[in-house]
Amino acid sequence: MKNDVKELVNKGEMLPLMEEFYTIQGEGFYKGTAAYFIRIGGCDVGCHWCDVKESWNANLHPPTEIVKIVENAKKYSDTIVITGGEPLMWDMEPLTSQLKSEGLKTHIETSGAYKLTGVWDWICLSPKKMKLPTEEVSAKANELKVIVYNKDDFRFAEEQAAKVNSDCILYLQPEWSKRDKVVPLIVDYVMANPKWKVSLQTHKYLNIP
Question: Which GO biological process annotations does it have (predicted)?
Fold first, then answer.
């Protein structure tokens, strides 16, 4: 990467864009809502069950001017979801400021492992054991979405729920490859602990991105 481009990336004026697409939000509070997704490359959290491991290496994804990203986004939807990868590895302030100046709603899906940057209407925190979220992201999260891969994830979920604000909506979501085994466990857990809700990856059931 050339030095001038690298400097723009470091400032958040260019971002390693993996993909962008218009679809239906499949998870959490806004499931069923049309939204434009911007997937930013780069992640070092390293979930072994990640379904977008091709996003991990930021160098594989072309640095793209945020002006172009915003121009594309505003054609499709007023709800923009920034995801990854781990988008907070980059400075989200320039991108979100431009999106907000266009009157768009900004949502982020993040592990919360990095400093919170950007202006957000909705923060979906999906914490990971390998790299825990910062106190700031936990405090400001609108929804907590814990992926359940095995029984120990219920313990982890309660630990993380103790760190978020009282208005944060709590979700347990089965890891897709283990759904047949963990869905019954999640159902039983939510019925016994009704502060939690079940989140499903409905976009996969609908066979859409």
Answer: tRNA queuosine(34) biosynthetic process
